[in-house]
């Protein structure tokens, strides 16, 4: 099997899209060494670290026609590699027929609230206009998504047949695991990790932390790439803005935190929740359907500023509750792996190609 995957998310320095393409392509190549996995983009991108030999970089545009990437360039690149199928990992597949296509829709945030994705950000305007056409007119043979909650939403929103939409869950990377406590122990802190953007509801978290800080005595640490459309955060005593944190440093942060707090308005999956759980960090998160599905009863759910503040107080004052949440999160995280994601994704490729798995 020769499969081409859109590598454009690898041009981002961090975030869920980058992690998805990195982890999925690497797991596919490791699990199926007999197959060839080809990463394609019209932009320069770094290959995943320690990429297996059968995970390779495809050609970039060579001509002016190729630079019209989704119209001509990607088709030419696919054909030059001999790929049998193209996987659009982030809302887009080739506009013209060629080989079968799988399209990943991580969520419907571009359509749910335009304020979450201004047209100037991440080609949001193009996605809003063109992805519905790719879905409704069958350019994407199979629509892949990351949770059952999102699968139901996609079927309803686009009016597509249920059998065309498949849910394959994500996972936390292997390096996310509990780290022995730092010595000496740091000052207690709550943690938020994600790209800073409007739908993550970070300002509600800050308000809840301020409201409860007198009782909890804990600082607030915020880590993540700041997207250009995100409103700035006013500095405050006890509020630590780390910016983008290297992947290898995140397990230490999760392990040291009193709790990971993720009050997001909307997600397709909510990967940081699973990363925190796999590190044994208690989780407080929103009632978003996808996040609730992923958490599987192993988190505290809070939506309003008052509820988040109450959850911060409860976790701070009750060591038994923290231990219970930590153990439940570790158990929940064991249900997910990138090997499973790779197996289920490849089975969809094989089905579409009429091959036995």
Largest sheet: 7 strands, parallel
The coarse silhouette is: globular
Strand content range: 5-15%
Helix content: 25-40%
By CATH reckoning, the class of the largest domain would read Alpha Beta
Mean pLDDT rating: 93
Q: What is the CATH homology-level superfamily of the largest domain?
A: Glycogen Phosphorylase B
Distance between the termini: 11 Å
Q: What is the number of helices? A: 12
> Order of helices and strands, N to C?
EHEEHEEHHEHEEHEEHEHEHEHHH
Spatially, the strands of the biggest sheet line up as 3-2-1-4-5-6-7
Q: Note poorly predicted spans.
A: none
CATH structural fold name of the largest domain: Rossmann fold
Given the helix and strand composition, which structural class is it? alpha/beta
- The gyration radius over C-alpha positions equals 21 Å
Return the CATH architecture of the largest domain.
3-Layer(aba) Sandwich
Instruction: Tally the beta strands.
Output: 13
What count of domains describes the coordinates? 2
What does this structure look like?
A 7-stranded parallel beta sheet has the order 3-2-1-4-5-6-7, sandwiched between helices. Helix 1 crosses helix 12 (338-353) and helix 6 (202-216) packs across helix 10. It has helices at 16-31, 69-81, 109-112, 124-136, 148-158, 202-216, 250-256, 271-278, 289-295, 305-317, 319-333, 338-353, and strands at 2-6, 36-40, 55-57, 85-88, 101-104, 142-145, 165-167, 189-193, 219-223, 239-243, 259-262, 283-285, 300-301. The mean pLDDT is 93. The chain is an alpha/beta fold. The protein has 12 helices and 13 strands. The longest helix is centred in the N-terminal third of the chain and has 16 residues, at 16-31. It folds into 2 domains: 2-171 and 337-353, Glycogen Phosphorylase B (Rossmann fold); 189-333, 3-Layer(aba) Sandwich (Rossmann fold), CATH 3.40.50.
């Amino acid at each position: 099997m020769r499969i081409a995957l859109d590598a454009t998310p690898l041009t981002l320095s961090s975030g869920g899209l980058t992690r998805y393409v990195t982890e999925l392509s690497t797991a596919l190549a490791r699990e199926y060494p007999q197959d060839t996995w080809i990463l394609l983009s019209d932009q320069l991108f770094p290959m995943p670290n320690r990429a297996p030999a059968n995970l390779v970089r495809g050609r970039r545009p060579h001509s002016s026609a190729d630079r019209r990437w989704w119209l001509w360039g990607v088709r030419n690149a696919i054909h030059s590699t001999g790929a049998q199928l193209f996987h659009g990992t982030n809302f887009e597949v080739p506009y013209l027929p060629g080989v079968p296509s799988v399209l990943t829709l991580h969520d419907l945030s571009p359509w749910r609230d335009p304020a979450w994705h201004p047209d100037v950000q991440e080609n949001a305007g193009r996605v809003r206009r063109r992805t519905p056409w790719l879905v409704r007119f069958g350019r994407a043979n199979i629509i892949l998504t990351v949770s059952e909650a999102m699968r139901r939403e996609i079927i309803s929103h686009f009016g597509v047949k249920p059998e065309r939409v498949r849910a394959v869950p994500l996972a936390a990377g292997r390096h996310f695991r509990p780290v022995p406590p730092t010595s000496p122990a740091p000052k207690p802190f709550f943690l938020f990790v994600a790209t800073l953007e409007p739908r993550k509801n970070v300002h509600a978290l800050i308000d809840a932390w301020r409201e409860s800080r007198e009782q909890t005595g804990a600082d607030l640490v915020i880590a993540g790439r700041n997207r250009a459309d995100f409103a700035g955060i006013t500095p405050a005593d006890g509020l630590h803005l780390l910016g983008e944190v290297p992947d290898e440093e995140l397990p230490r942060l999760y392990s040291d935190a009193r709790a990971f707090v993720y009050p997001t308005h909307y997600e397709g999956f909510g990967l940081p929740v699973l990363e925190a759980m796999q590190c044994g960090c208690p989780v407080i998160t929103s009632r978003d359907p996808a996040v609730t599905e992923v958490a599987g009863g192993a988190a505290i759910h809070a939506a309003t500023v008052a509820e988040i503040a109450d959850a911060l107080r409860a976790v701070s004052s009750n060591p038994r509750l923290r231990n219970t949440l930590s153990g439940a999160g570790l158990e929940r995280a064991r249900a997910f792996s990138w090997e499973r994601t790779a197996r289920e994704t490849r089975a969809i490729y094989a089905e579409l190609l009429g091959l036995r798995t």
